[in-house]
Amino acid sequence: MAIAYNQIGSLRELLDILKDEGINDFQTLDEIRKFRDNFDNLLDDIRIKNKELLDNNIVKLESERKNISEVIDKKLKVREELLKKEQKEIPSKIAELENKRSKILIPVYWIRKKILLRRKNILETNFEKILKRPFWYKILRLKSVVTELDDKKNNTEKWIDSMSEKEIKRAQFILSALVENKLTFYGAEGEERAVNELKKLPDTYVIINDYRKNFKPPLYDRKDNAVISSIQIDHLVVGPTGVHIIETKNWSQKSVNSRDLFSPVQQLMRTSYAVFIILN
């Protein structure tokens, strides 16, 4: 089997075009073909993947909600016992203060009594607020988790759409770029098939794909009155039978029948003359 060197030219050209568009997802023609042929399945896979991510996120939120609730309930229970104990002890502290009234300074008496009465009033009128005050940040987090959890459970499709939007838009952008450059893609497919056929030659042959050469100064072909500054050959085949220049065109039958179709004969004549000069 003949050995082939270099990437085929049309594929290199297509990959360069895609890279200029910020698309670096492909290295081979098979990868591009697989993307095109399985595009609808790719979109489904994106949504399935994000559905799994959403399900996992819901499980984590459920776990977080449960853990926060348990912590808050435990801390509220302990604090409620302490506040009720404090509330129960205030009357006895006021009575004790009254008994000591004659033994302490009047200003001190009134300040202490005012503090006790104020505390008693706060506990009676704002018990729940005082009870929850040290845990407000956990309670807010719990409300946030519950809100997010309910939203994700009740609006699953909306969340999947949102999570998938960026990936789907990028996939559509890539497909659009491939469609826009479909002629280059078809050219690459033609060159690929040509190389696969050329590889069937014996191992005494070598295939050089996308052979390029610049000439400084340019060559001058007197016969055709042509100046040749560079050449590009789809497949340069070297073997016992000589050096062969192969130009690949992946044309449809309609294109072949068209009188306006560009002929590669002139191109082959230019490259043949250049290769002749190189070899001599």
Largest sheet: 4 strands, mixed
Per DSSP, what share of the residues sits in E-state strands of 2 or more residues?
Answer: 5-15%
Mass-distribution shape: rod-shaped
Oligomeric organization of the protein chains: single chain
Order of helices and strands: EHHHHHHHHEEEHH
The helix count comes to 10
Q: What percent of the residues sit in helical stretches (DSSP H or I)?
A: 55-70%
Rg calculated over all Cα atoms: 41 Å
Question: Can you characterise this structure?
Answer:
With 280 residues, the protein is α+β, with helices and mostly antiparallel strands. It contains ten helices and four strands. Strands 1-2-3-4 form a four-stranded mixed β-sheet. The longest helix has 61 residues.
Compact description:
The protein has about 280 residues and is an alpha+beta fold.
List keywords for this structure.
alpha+beta; 4 strands; 14% strand; 4-stranded mixed beta sheet; single chain; rod-shaped; 280 residues
List the SSEs and their pairings:
Layout: E1 3-5, H1 9-20, H2 29-37, H3 39-99, H4 106-125, H5 127-132, H6 136-154, H7 156-180, H8 182-198, E2 206-221, E3 226-239, E4 242-246, H9 253-257, H10 265-279
